[in-house]
Amino acid sequence: DSGVTQTPKHLITATGQRVTLRCSPRSGDLSVYWYQQSLDQGLQFLIQYYNGEERAKGNILERFSAQQFPDLHSELNLSSLELGDSALYFCASSATGNLLDTEAFFGQGTRLTVV
Amino acid sequence: GQQVMQIPQYQHVQEGEDFTTYCNSSTTLSNIQWYKQRPGGHPVFLIQLVKSGEVKKQKRLTFQFGEAKKNSSLHITATQTTDVGTYFCAGRTSGTYKYIFGTGTRLKVLA
């Protein structure tokens, strides 16, 4: 158990809908990262938050948004869903947001299926 | 933008054979991390390399960071069936906060 909790584990929704994925980082970790992994693909970096503020942005679509709340949990909002958004979404957390970071701990992921 | 490529994409080995995956970045990296993802699982951190030319060992795994800090390798000696999974490198370019993951190498070990 990595200590990072993601909910829900599975999500099936229709095209055009909006969903929210939730992530609780390890206790004490200030950084939260979101990644998208399509079937048999690598990990695409979406966005990073550090202590409530956006720290780095990757290939995140305009239809997607995220935030980190004062209690450090994070939510990834996906709207106007398309079939191609079906993927495994991972959240990871790490202790700091410094350049020489410590390891990132990944959650179990949320498998999103858009039908 | 920054790209991190890994080769090979797939590797099948007989149990007991050695295995190496290579990670190449289009930009100089400040540090690089390696992760392992078992089938159906989530990435798990293996190691971080920071210094140019650094070599680190973990039992049968040897990690190297290139002198120019643009490439890295992971070598597994005498593979075991428990080594099955996808190995990812993740590099961070100096001056940025984000880690870019490599394309991954999927290792299959045949008993």
What does this protein look like?
- The complex is a heterodimer of chains A (115) and B (111).
- Chain A has strands at residues 5-7, 10-13, 19-24, 31-37, 43-50, 53-57, 64-68, 74-78, 87-94, 105-106, 110-114.
- With 115 residues, chain A is an all-beta fold.
- In chain A, the strands form 2 sheets. In chain A, strands 2, 4, 5, 6, 9, 10 and 11 form a 7-stranded mixed sheet that branches. Chain A has a 4-stranded antiparallel sheet with strand order 1-3-8-7, with no helix packed on it.
- The radius of gyration of chain A is 13 Å and the shape is globular.
- With 111 residues, chain B is an all-beta fold.
- Chain B contains no helices and 11 strands.
- In chain B, the strands form 2 sheets. In chain B, strands 2, 4, 5, 9, 10 and 11 form a 6-stranded mixed sheet that branches.
Radius of gyration of chain B, in Å, reads: 13 Å
**Overall body shape of chain B:** globular
**How much of the residues of chain B is beta strand, in percent?**
over 45%
How many β-strand runs of chain B? 11
- Could you tell me the radius of gyration of chain A in angstroms? 13 Å
Could you tell me the mean pLDDT of chain B? 94
Helical stretch tally of chain B:
0
Structural class by SSE content of chain B: mainly beta
Q: How much is the average pLDDT of chain A? A: 92
Question: Which residue ranges of chain A are poorly predicted, with pLDDT under 50 across at least 5 consecutive positions?
Answer: none
Strand content of chain A: over 45%
Unreliable stretches of chain B (pLDDT < 50, length at least 5) are none
Helix percentage of chain A: under 10%
Total number of helices of chain A: 0
- Report how far apart the termini of chain B are: 41 Å
Structural class estimated from helices and strands of chain A? mainly beta
Task: Report the major sheet of chain A.
Answer: 7 strands, mixed
Question: Secondary-structure element sequence of chain B?
Answer: EEEEEEEEEEE
